[in-house]
Amino acid sequence: MHGWNRLTAFLLFVVAIPAAADCSRGGTAPIADLRAGVVAENGSVTVDGIVTGVFLGRNRLGGFYLQDDRQPPSGLFVYAPRLGPGNLRPGQRVQVEGRFVRFHGRPQVSRIDTIRDCGYAGRAEPVAVRLPEDAGRLDALQGVKVRFPDALTVTGNYELGRYGSLRLSSGGRLLRTGAPGSGANAHADRQIVLDDGSYRAEPDPIPYLDAQGTRRLGDTVQGLTGILTHAFGAHRLHPTREPSFIAANPRPEPPPAAPAPLRVSTLNVENYFLTLGQRGARSQAELQRQRGKLAAVVRGLDADVLALTEVENRREALTDLVRQINRGLPQGQRYAAVAHPDSGTDAIQVALLYRPERLDLVMTAADVDPVHNRAPVLGWFRASAGGPLLGVAAVHFKAKVGCPDTGDIDRGQGCWNRLRTNQARSLLEWIDSLRRDGAPVVIAGDINAYAAEDPLDLLRAAGKTNLAGRDLRPSGRYTYVFHGEAGQLDYLLAAPAVAKRVTAAGVWHINADEPPFLGYSGRRPASGPWRSSDHDPVWVDLHWR
């Protein structure tokens, strides 16, 4: 009989032997000593304890956790990948002989020689953990069964489809405003990762989904119980009880219909490229899904003017996008595009869509200042029935990625902050130079800066106000989520005279809260507008006559 077959047979055999006959021998190493480094690595050890979590079977962790009955308790992982999942259960006391090692810094017993069943001792009571108060205890509780009695909020789902994990936070969602002290380090003590008892990539089925096949940010879970560990740079919990989620942030309805006012909206199309395999779709099937999603968003927004960002910088891409959007719309609701020959040298461009049945396009212009890698586009509009002029400028400032080693580095507001601030300054000067009869201009698009950062400070100092800010609670002022932190990068900004004409406004949270695997290039692409982009659209209704 081979080694692992002998182990399984031995385990099944000793279940029937009285505990005292097998487990009364001395010489066991305290789990606390193994964790503390008192026992030398790569040596043979005997440990005993109560089984607290069993993660055996296909695509699982390949082992189980033991915990002693001291206070405070210590826990340890036993790596036994060939052991059948039916051989152990929580509450069972066992004695394990094997080799003590550290795997990626985590202590564990592996290369098992013997496992003895010492009888049923009763399930270990979990240690209560509250965040952020107990954040300093998490290292000491690695390998221990814990319970989070307070409600935890889903604040990150980026890894859900990739590795089956969710980022959770105490005290509600993690919000990023750009103000000093609002960064990732400020939130570190509030976070824990809910894992799935496995480190396998692309789990199937994807765990923790609701009946709609999603798990939105803002949903909550209470009484989370499992084994605490630290892996891949984060404290993680492998649940021993199925988590029960509350859909605290259900999918929102489209903005309410408002036929009389003028509606202006932002729309990030997340790299709409006809050139396959570049930034956008990798195949014709993905492109078709992207088209369908974007058409659903446009129908839901029902805007008169749309400021687009992330369209491939070639004329055919914008033409195709407009054609695809118009296919499902009645004649009076179809769009025309406003672009400009001077669209910049970047791979992507901005553009404006508007409804000719409702608006007359009076003039267009582009800001060709070389400070802009994506030239802003301005359109002047007047209602078809007559009325005052309104300008809408589509913008997309430099992103916080591709950081340089020197110069405009990250000094607390992301790299390229100086460039974004200069772009804001140039934009204001350009708009002033084109102002027609004192008509106001709505700045619409992706500023790539949070509300309290320098570019927004400069725009506010020039009299620009966040048109959607009045109708939104602070917790709803976000359009993008990065590393579990929600913040606003996309804006509709204008002078107070325009703000006085706002009848309704909001952010349609259809994208940032949804897991990426629902996107057009994801593993499980969803139908409809959900995860049509990684940015949420902002909309505003104006009484403009």
From TrEMBL:
One of its GO terms (molecular function) is endonuclease activity. It holds the Pfam family Exo_endo_phos. InterPro entries: Endo/exonu/phosph_ase_sf (IPR036691), Endo/exonuclease/phosphatase (IPR005135), ExeM-like (IPR047971). Keywords: Endonuclease, Hydrolase, Nuclease, Signal. Residues 272-535 form the Endonuclease/exonuclease/phosphatase domain. Residues 1-21 form the signal peptide. This is Endonuclease/exonuclease/phosphatase. It comes from Thioalkalivibrio nitratireducens (strain DSM 14787 / UNIQEM 213 / ALEN2).
